[in-house]
TrEMBL record:
InterPro entries: GlnE, GlnE_rpt_dom, NT_sf, PII_UdlTrfase/GS_AdlTrfase. Residues 48-272, 530-763 form the Glutamate-ammonia ligase adenylyltransferase repeated domain. This is Putative glutamate--ammonia ligase adenyltransferase. The keyword Transferase applies. Keywords: ATP-binding, Ligase, Magnesium, Multifunctional enzyme, Nucleotide-binding, Nucleotidyltransferase, Transferase. One of its GO terms (cellular component) is cytosol. It comes from Dinoroseobacter shibae (strain DSM 16493 / NCIMB 14021 / DFL 12). Residues 297-439, 801-885 form the PII-uridylyltransferase/Glutamine-synthetase adenylyltransferase domain. GO terms for molecular function: [glutamate-ammonia-ligase] adenylyltransferase activity; ATP binding; ligase activity. GO terms for biological process: regulation of glutamine family amino acid metabolic process. Gene3D superfamilies: Beta Polymerase, domain 2, Nucleotidyltransferases domain 2.
């Protein structure tokens, strides 16, 4: 296809006679629409007309295959002789400007091709300039330890392309933004100063080669001011110094700038490593809604500095910085990426249109809004290019007079200037309408607290200024805008005074406020959730204050969707940990992930989306997922020192509530570890260990992985007292010793505990087979050790009940767990029924049913116990969401009481108390009767 057949639009001549004369003089062979396009270009752009006059012969040949002509320029740039570098690069720039300009105007190259080719040319010319500038330093030995052989990778120096150059989005007359760095690790400490001086000289010389005006013009204006603290730092600095700056002083705008950063010239591998180390600075691990206000403030400062405030008026309007312009779309996109990119690496793309696409795909931007902004971004950039094509001026301002607009419209191929201006103004207005509310949502007017808030509210609010979350001016400003709405919603709670006091405890526990308050401001629905929690579950509100990052999950994913199940949870946690090489980072990431899902279960339970039984199952799914995913990673970490697990491996066995799948929001994990050395003498590693010590270390490492307080808190407390020999025995039990002990030495209570045992995770080459063997052994043992032992089991259970009652008697009327006829008592009889019937099930309801099937219990007896069990489970799981102690109705307040009554279906707390007491009496009576009957 010829250039002419590829044309999709036609520039019109502002000055037809001038355009025709230029074409006749320089391209007399052009005919048809190609001639018309050339006349339009030369008749509307004095700059392109001038380039055509200088490069006519080359240009005529280039039009036969513009892509090949451009590729040839890129190939020739590195070959320019050092003594010809300045004129050679300028001739190349002339040709690229002419070719790209005409291909743009004629629609042969779409916007993305134009900006990408301009960027590729900038990379090539900047690389040539740096090599020409650095070569003399290397020849003269000014870069210690480096010679001319190190020139291809610039002896450890790299130029990072920032902004539009970094994203392959350079505009037609763009300057290029660079940060110049060098790898200090290449140099001994006493050589550092000399190396830095050489790199500074080379940087200045390279910039001069690019930007010094000569008779042939310039290549690119070059801006180095994006480097850290440019007023006091040299033009090329050590990577380590830059990293220290960003870690301690980096600002939001610098994070945004680094979204598009890429190594462009020099030591690209070192540059990539540097950016990788900077990832925690650019991409925060929590959703960062404070970035919205930073970006908004930056926009306002820019507009104030440039005098760009006020409504959109086309004459003189700045297409880049003005309202509804290019920068608004870029800020909108980058700010959204900054907010969410720490949690979702898919959002870490450089291009603006690409960023909008992935934000829409991930649900952060409405697809229709992303489509509109993408279309307008392209249209804005094309107008920007044509503004710059007129005179090669680094300007983004629209003309101020009618002739100027007519010339600009001609370059876009529009004869209807008035209609084109209306379309342009509409696009600017639509961009403003879509982006302004994101940066500056309507603020609630300040108003006094609503009447529903008690008179004591003023006294409570007076102490807020002393809390850590409200000590900064910025936090106070944001909270000041939120306070009327928060108080209004607190006032609508069932007990406004209780809700206010719980909210007071919530903000008192926050370590900082700017991020969280910004999150509330950007997502007002979260205020409803916080008020709901404060009005209902003070313990959950305290958990939230200590772990406010979990709110990311509320808006960063399908928080209110159905429970995904254990397999999907495991896949998600694996995906979260897979990119992390550091073991401690994996443990911290697991903690963040677990807290989010733990909070989700609590909120779903609190809001009635699930009942107590389902919540218990979900808490158990979550714990099992954490254990099953971390257990192999703990083993892998131990393997680094002592080799892979010897023998068949080890299994983590859930006991108690974990085995029975009845965990609550505050449950510990009861567990034992069983390993099989399979006759192997020792592990194969740098420091070999026999199986016993190896698996003891592995078990202790797993306990530490789950319980150690880290930056993100702890996962679970672990109770291993159910292992053979209790606290006195080894923390990990060998498979042979486990079998021998259970068959010959275990007490009745240990066999009872085994009725609720389940393998949760494994580590080792054959841990799956070990898990199967253990389950088969458990089932066979229960079948052999239970039936026919009613009298013995009954005596032991009666003795255990007496011991439990003496050690932990029921102290409060709403106690669900301890005491005759309460949870622990019913579960104990269920385990006994499972043992005597040889049943394999771990759930107490199923164990009681197995007892009925085996003739150990009567159906009516099982019905009494099962009914009481259901009520007490509802109470226990719900109470553990409200308080960390026994239920005190006054302490949990009206909201907590209402939640508990909804869960149990009771009309009031007195009815609930009475039903619990009556049920306990009835259950205890059944249990005594059953044990008496079993004893004969």
């Amino acid at each position: 296809m010829t250039f002419e057949t590829r044309m999709t639009r036609l520039p019109l001549p502002f000055d037809p006679e001038r355009g025709a004369a230029a074409v006749a003089a320089h391209c007399p062979e052009a005919t048809g629409t190609l001639r018309d396009a050339l006349v339009g270009m030369a008749g509307s752009s004095p700059y392109l007309e001038g380039l055509l006059a200088k490069e006519a012969a080359w240009f005529a040949a280039a039009l036969e295959d513009p892509e090949a002509a451009f590729a040839q320029i890129l190939a020739e740039v590195p070959e320019i002789a050092p003594d010809q570098i300045k004129p050679g690069l300028r001739v190349a720039k002339r040709r690229v400007a002419l070719l790209a300009g005409f291909a743009d105007l004629a629609g042969v190259w779409p916007l993305e091709a134009v900006t990408e080719n301009l960027t590729l040319f900038a990379d090539a010319t900047m690389g040539a300039a740096l090599r020409a500038a650095l070569a003399p330093e290397l020849r003269r030995g000014k870069v210690p330890g480096q010679g001319e052989a190190d020139l291809p990778e610039a002896a450890g120096m790299v130029m990072l392309a920032m902004g539009k150059m970094g994203a392959f989005e350079l505009n037609y007359s763009s300057d290029i933004d660079l940060i110049c760095l060098f790898d200090q690790d290449r140099f001994a400490p006493d050589a550092f100063g000399e190396a830095r001086a050489a790199f500074v000289r080379a940087t200045r010389r390279a910039v001069g080669i690019m930007s010094d005006p000569t008779g042939d013009g310039y290549v690119f204006r070059t801006d180095l001011r994006l480097r850290p603290d440019p007023s006091v730092t040299p033009v090329c600095i050590a990577m380590e110094a830059a990293e220290r700056y960003y870690e301690s002083l980096g600002r939001t705008w610098e994070r945004a700038a680094h979204i598009k950063a890429r190594p462009a010239v020099g030591d690209l591998e070192a540059g990539a490593g540097y950016l990788a180390r900077l990832t925690p600075f650019i991409w925060r691990k929590h959703l960062d809604f404070a970035a919205i206000e930073d970006a908004h403030d930056m926009r306002l400062r820019i507009r104030a500095h440039k005098g760009l405030h006020g409504p959109v008026s086309l004459p003189g309007h700045d297409m880049k910085l003005g309202k509804g312009g290019i920068r608004d779309i870029e800020f909108f996109t980058q700010t959204r990426q900054i907010i969410s990119g720490g949690r979702d690496p898919d959002l870490r793309v450089r291009g603006t249109v690409a960023g909008l696409a992935v934000l829409a795909e991930k649900g952060w931007v409405r697809p229709e809004d992303a489509a509109v902004l993408s279309d307008h971004y392209r249209a804005h950039r094309e107008v920007e290019h044509r503004v710059q094509m007129i005179a090669d001026a680094q300007t983004h301002a629209l003309p101020k007079d009618d002739d100027g607009f007519r010339r600009l419209a001609c370059l876009t191929g529009e004869a209807d200037v008035a209609g084109w201006r209306r379309q342009l103004k509409d696009r600017l207005a639509e961009v403003a309408a879509l982006t302004e509310p994101f940066f500056a949502p309507e603020r609630s007017a300040s108003s006094p607290p609503p009447e529903a808030v008690p008179e004591g509210a003023a006294e409570v609010m007076e102490r807020w200024r002393s809390y850590p979350a409200l000590r900064s001016t910025r936090a106070l400003e944001i909270f000041g805008r939120l306070r009327p709405e928060i108080l209004s919603r607190l006032g609508r709670a069932a007990r406004p005074d209780e809700a206010l006091l719980n909210f007071d405890s919530f903000i008192k526990g926050l370590p900082a406020g700017v991020q969280l308050f910004s999150l509330f401001e950007a997502n007002p629905s979260l205020i409803d959730l916080i008020v709901d929690i404060c009005a209902t579950a003070p313990l959950l509100s305290r958990y939230l204050a200590a772990n406010s990052g979990v709110l990311d999950a509320v808006i960063g994913g399908p928080f209110f969707a159905d429970w995904p199940g254990e397999a999907a949870l495991a896949a998600e946690l694996e995906a979260r940990l897979a990119p992390l090489d550091d073991y401690e980072h994996q443990l911290d990431a697991a903690r963040r992930w677990q807290k989010e899902w733990h909070f989700r279960v609590g909120v779903h339970h609190l809001r009635g989306l699930v009942d107590a039984q389902v919540a218990a199952e979900q808490y158990t799914d979550l714990a099992e997922t954490v254990v099953s995913v971390l257990w192999p990673r703990v083993a892998a970490e131990l393997s680094r020192r002592h080799g892979p697990p010897p023998g068949r491996g080890a299994v983590f066995v859930g006991m108690g509530s974990l085995g029975a799948r009845t965990l609550t929001a505050q449950s510990d994990l009861d567990a034992i570890v069983v390993y099989d050395g399979a006759g192997v003498e020792a592990s194969e590693g740098r420091r070999p260990l026999a199986p016993g010590p190896y698996y003891a270390k592995l078990t202790k490492a797993m306990i530490t992985a789950l319980t150690a307080p880290m930056a993100e808190g702890r996962l679970y407390e672990i109770d291993m007292r159910l292992r053979p020999s209790g606290r006195q025995g080894p923390v990990a039990t060998s498979w042979s010793a486990f079998q021998s002990y259970q068959e010959s030495d275990a007490w009745t209570w240990e066999h009872l505990a085994l009725t609720r045992a389940r393998v949760i995770g494994g580590a080792g080459p054959e841990s799956g087979a070990l898990a199967e063997d253990l389950e088969a052994f458990r089932c066979a043992l229960l079948r052999s050790k239970g039936p026919g032992r009613q009298a013995e089991v009954a005596r032991d259970v009666a003795d255990m009940r007496a011991r439990l009652e003496a050690a932990k008697p029921a102290e409060r009327p709403f106690e669900a767990k301890q005491g005759p006829g309460r949870l622990q008592d019913i579960e104990l009889l269920g385990q006994a029924a499972a043992l005597l019937s040889g049943a394999e099930c771990a759930d107490t309801r199923l164990q009681l049913a197995a007892g009925v099937a085996a003739g150990c219990l009567g159906p009516e007896e099982a019905a009494v116990l099962t009914g009481q069990l259901a009520l007490l489970r509802q109470v226990q799981t719900s109470v553990r969401l409200l308080t960390d102690g026994a239920l005190d109705p006054d302490a949990v307040g009206a909201g907590g009481q209402a939640f508990l009554l909804r869960q149990t279906g009771r009309a009031d707390m007195e009815t609930l108390r009475a039903d619990m007491a009556a049920g306990a009496d009835a259950a205890a009576e059944v249990i005594v009767a059953v044990l008496t009957r079993w004893q004969g």
